[in-house]
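Handout, tutorial session.
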Amino acid sequence: MKPTILFCGYREWAVKIYDFINDEFKEKLDLKLVRSAEELKETIISLKPDLIFFVGWSWIVEKEVVNKFKCICLHPSPLPKYRGGSPLQHQIIDGEKESAVTLFIMDENVDKGPIVRQESFSLEGDLKDIFERIIEKGKLGISSIINSFLDGKNIEEVPQDKNKATYYKRRNPEQSEIKPEDFNKYDAEEIYNKIRALQDPYPNAFVVCKDNTKLYIQKAKIEKEK
């Protein structure tokens, strides 16, 4: 009987990683894509997976699941930095130039488990380009972990340095507003970073105009005076 692996993810970029992994390992594994917390609960009961990957997952995973099964999460930040919600947007808005795809063993705490793989990538350019980099790093990292699993090798786990940890909350749509006073408070690059961090599929940056109408800004560029 082939080992069973659950792949939990519903975002477009996460499903692209799943499609690659499924094509790569379909002869060696039984892979199942799970798109919601409700589906996860039902599937675990029926399949009892050997390994579970969480990629682009928004729901808190119950402690009974992480204690009973080997669960590995993909987090788009150089953990232990940028733990918590909306890590990609926060990094871009903060002006970070480089990030990392981190794969770590999940435990009862949020984003605190030991790291098994971490690969850096650039945060330059539009969000769609950044997602493509995350997809490529995710493919390589998850493939490597699965190959080690199939070969019966122990996956090296490196504890996170809690002294270097930073935490962020999940952003809400109201935080996408660019206010008139922001143009005096922030320079062009800072506002540009906010706009590109909030490109689709996230709640786009917007300006409130006359009669409470909203102007959404999906793309911008900056030029420095010579």
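The second record follows below. Compare its token runs with those of the first.
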Amino acid sequence: MDVSPLSLLSDWDIPRVVTSALATVSALYVRGWVALRRTRPAMLPIWRMIAFLARVVFVFIAVASPLDTFSETLLFMHMAQHFVLMSVAPPLIVMGSPFVPLVRGMPVGIVRKIAKFFFVRPPCTWSGDACVDCMLPGWL
């Protein structure tokens, strides 16, 4: 495969699913960050949002740019893609502290359904030595 400087600028293969997922997560984060900034401005400084959005940009570059296009034929492109995904993006995720802004950015109905699934359980119905609902043994 011929790798010219022009092909490095023009051979972007943009995956729709990954791009839409990154855009959705970014929108949720920004929405939650803005909502939290109104009530607790010291909790989330601007650099956290910049770090999280930089992570989104780096992941997009790793999966849509010529790094991905030429990763099947050029080993150094494949390794550069690994470097971005394993060494650059994770620290930016941690610096962005995404959990609270993402939860705050989601619609309230979805958050309640998720919380209800994890935190509200009906009591177990015991029959002999095991729970009928979740099949837990009696000794747990």
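Points raised in discussion: Residues 16-39 form the longest helix (24 residues).
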